[in-house]
Amino acid sequence: MIRLGVVGHLGYSGLPAVLRTLGELGPALGLELWYEGALHDVAGGGCRLEDPSELDALLTLGGDGTLLRGARVISPHAVPILGVNLGRLGFLTCCNADQLSNALMRFARRDYLAESRMALQARVLNSRGVERKQWIALNDVVLHKGGFARVVRLHVAANGETIATYAADGVVLCTPTGSTAYSLSAGGPVVFPTLETIVVTPVSAHTLAIRPVILPSSVEVTLQAEDGPEELLVTVDGQVGTTFAAGETLSVRRAEGGVLIIRFPGTNFFTTLRQKLGWGGLVDRDGLT
């Protein structure tokens, strides 16, 4: 039996139908289903997920946000994630809900690839250098202002060497996987997802001289606020985070190990870019070539 963990977003209207299909097809394919707490109550069967280290794989039912949450659920265990999209974009997922049956059959016969994606370890250190918060991020770590209508000055360094002092609304530190998320909308580059780099992208920089920087994955990037509002925000993968005060330090480096993302042979990164982000222009997006 393959021990398959299942996490999902209860807000999607198509979730009950997907759970029925999973409950009917899973056992026939040799899949032992382990549901996270709230999902277990809805599924009406299977086991309750308590220890992610016992899983062989994780199935996420939702959008990219659900997959990102799933990556935190199984961290730091090397458990491959099969993402099923129930929403609109689903850039990180490998298939849509109407393809679930086929995806489960291919997964059960191990007709898939598990790509290792670099993750980030983010830590907030207080003014005495003592760690008070820590996370793992698959997409990005963002230091930004709240609702203040003014730029902030953020000192950014790599291995202690100053990169620049950014006058901006914030700074995005992202993985190659996260290069197609918030960093992209802030003007950052698209980076092939299996590379290992850290991208530093300013958000609404207040000077033309500041541009995104791509750093090797071996560096530790640190950020400190030089002035601005008394309290900033750190946001991790757009989902969790904390406040950030003057005198504190945000430290970001490559996490130990990576996150395994399942994809099926016959799909590729640039096809996904064209189909879901309109990569290549309107002609390719509209299917006119």
CATH class of the largest domain: Mainly Beta
In whole angstroms, the N-to-C terminal distance is 45 Å
Helix tally equals 7
**CATH architectural designation of the largest domain:** Sandwich
- Give the CATH superfamily of the largest domain: Probable inorganic polyphosphate/atp-NAD kinase, domain 2
Low-confidence stretches: none
Global shape: elongated
Under CATH, the topology of the largest domain can be stated as Tumour Suppressor Smad4
How would you sum up the major sheet?
A: 6 strands, parallel
Total domains: 2
Helix amount: 10-25%
Number of strands: 18
Query: Which series of helices and strands comes N to C?
Result: EHEHEEHEEHEEEEEEHEEEEEEHH
β-strand amount: 35-45%
Structural class determined from secondary elements = alpha/beta
Describe the protein's architecture and organization.
With 289 residues, the protein is α/β, with parallel strands linked by helices. The protein folds into 2 domains: 133 residues, Probable inorganic polyphosphate/atp-NAD kinase, domain 1 (Rossmann fold, 3-Layer(aba) Sandwich); 137 residues, Tumour Suppressor Smad4 (Sandwich). It has 7 helices and 18 strands. The strands form 3 sheets. A 6-stranded parallel sheet has the order 3-2-1-4-5-6, sandwiched between helices. A hairpin with a 5-residue loop joins strand 7 and strand 8.
